[in-house]
Amino acid sequence: MVQKAKILLVDDRPENLLALEAILSALDQTLVRASSGEEALKALLTDDFAVILLDVQMPGMDGFETAAHIKRRERTRDIPIIFLTAINHGPHHTFRGYAAGAVDYISKPFDPWVLRAKVSVFVDLYMKNCQLREQASLLRLQLEGGQSGGEDAKESAGLLAELSARLAAVEEQAEALSKQLDESADAAAVATAAHLERKLTGLRRALDALEPGAGGGAGQLPPQG
């Protein structure tokens, strides 16, 4: 059974959290509430999240401060953050959101369909990342099992080739997306593409490390965030 992704919703107003849950319930993932920046940081200590929806204006630790803490932690720095704000002070305010590490910055009231679609992209990326890591881990165990040829070696080689082909397909799609972004200069899309590129690079490095004769042995997988 495929485990559901977790989405962290951070807002000090219960009615806003309820609205977000209503919008994102159609994704059929696990929605986790946090009513403050401090509560969000505690949740991030124990659980892995596909994406964080973070309100900017909160009493105490605001969204910018919370994002800064998230990006300083090794465990959480690669989790995508979508800022949500009810105010708009112009380009400078938006730039501060991207500078704090956000992959997107959405002003309220927002289009529910657009928000759901944006979150869905990061959920899909997270799930594919998890699946590839699990398959790579199984392959690594087979390689470390000491097989010296025969059916096990053939099965491992076939699995590695399948993983590489799947990743190549995603890389091709990402390359096509980057070419489109070169023509549209949308800051949020560029940030999203950059995050995707980092993830794909890490996955490719992991698969390359599993190739027979690769330096450092078959068991060394880089962290995937």
From TrEMBL:
Region forming the signal peptide: none
Tagged with keyword Nucleotide-binding: no
Keyword Phosphoprotein: yes
Coiled coil: 153-187
Alphabetized UniProt keyword annotations: Coiled coil, Phosphoprotein
Domain Response regulatory: from-to ranges: 6-123
Pfam families named among the record's database cross-references: Response_reg (PF00072)
PTM sites of type 4-aspartylphosphate: D55
Name the UniProt record assigns to this protein: Response regulator
Organism listed in the record: Streptomyces lonegramiae
